[in-house]
Design brief:
By secondary structure, the chain is an alpha/beta fold. The protein is built from 8 helices and 15 strands. It folds into 2 domains: 113 residues, HAD superfamily/HAD-like (Rossmann fold); 105 residues, HAD superfamily/HAD-like (Rossmann fold, 3-Layer(aba) Sandwich), CATH 3.40.50. It is 29% helix and 20% strand. The chain is globular. It starts with 13 loop residues before the first strand and ends in a 10-residue tail after the last helix. 39% of the residues are buried.
Length: 272
């Protein structure tokens, strides 16, 4: 990236900040994370912390972040389950069926759980709890009740225990194929996810920056709603991202520690 700072001019008021790969990797805090966040908060930025996890409730994500001593509150965290909450309430949907990890139930506590006549069925990652019985039960609910199908994401695979593993996407696709119904996607990189996060911040798109490591889910998703984007060279960043002919961030920095300088709020100059 160049040495130029963003032409700040008080234009940007909020930052969508991806969590894993940007602030921490596995159980290690990335250098400069806490210092950078403190500077952003001191300069009045509204920060929303984004995660695409559908195996863990927002409360549990928050508790993990507290172990890193990050300066945030639980409502600062925005996940597909929280986005789904807002989406369902906008649709005046009150009865739902959950095909998700059990810990996500607390994120849907405002809804009535109904496996007979739900208005919507929520699909999330069950990891090792995916079974034919659960998939078939969900299939039957969709056929009988004709609910809205809301998929928290549609990733094909992920990395678990140091090897590739099936993610939620293949199971969503199986249900779509078997029922001849399409799901509504709510997690990154879907426009819904980013728009709902910004709405939750009570800001306009042009007032918000996206900072992430994933060229597709973070950068591509944010660009779909015309946000300015910053990619960090940590986490899921790959060298080939720099030569991607179809997708590039507006800015690229080595790590979160360089963000405050890029925004022009760093007191001491750094060399890139």
């Amino acid at each position: 990236m160049s040495d130029q700072k963003i032409n700040f001019n008080n234009k940007f008021k909020g930052i969508l900040l991806d969590l894993e790969g940007v602030l921490y990797e596995e159980n290690r805090l990335i250098d400069g994370s806490i210092e950078t966040i403190n500077k952003l908060l001191a300069h009045g930025f509204n920060i929303k912390y984004l995660t695409n996890t559908t195996t863990t409730s927002r409360r549990l994500v928050f508790e993990k972040l507290l172990q890193f001593q990050l300066p945030l509150i639980e409502s600062d965290i925005f996940s597909p389950a929280i986005a789904a909450n807002i989406f369902l309430k906008k649709k005046n949907i009150s009865r739902i069926s959950l095909f998700t990890n059990q810990s996500l139930q607390e994120d849907f506590k405002d809804f009535e759980f109904d496996d007979v006549k739900p208005e919507a069925i929520i699909l999330g990652d069950l990891y090792k709890e995916f079974t034919w019985e659960k998939l078939n039960k969900t299939f039957q609910i969709i056929l009988d009740a004709n609910p809205l199908i809301l998929a928290l994401h549609k990733n094909r695979y992920c990395k678990r225990e140091n090897k590739l593993s099936l993610d939620l996407g293949p199971f969503v696709t199986a249900l779509e194929y078997a029922t001849s119904k399409k799901s509504v996607l709510i997690g990154k990189p879907e426009k819904n996810f980013f728009n709902l996060a910004i709405e939750d911040m009570k800001l306009k798109n042009e007032e918000v920056l996206m900072v992430g490591d994933d060229i597709v889910a973070d950068i591509g998703g944010a660009k779909n709603i015309f946000l300015k984007t910053i990619q960090v060279k940590t986490g899921k960043f790959q060298k080939k991202d720099e030569t991607n002919l179809y997708l590039q961030p507006d800015y690229r920095i080595n790590s979160i520690s360089e963000l405050s300088y890029l925004l022009g709020i760093e007191l001491t100059e750094k060399n890139y």
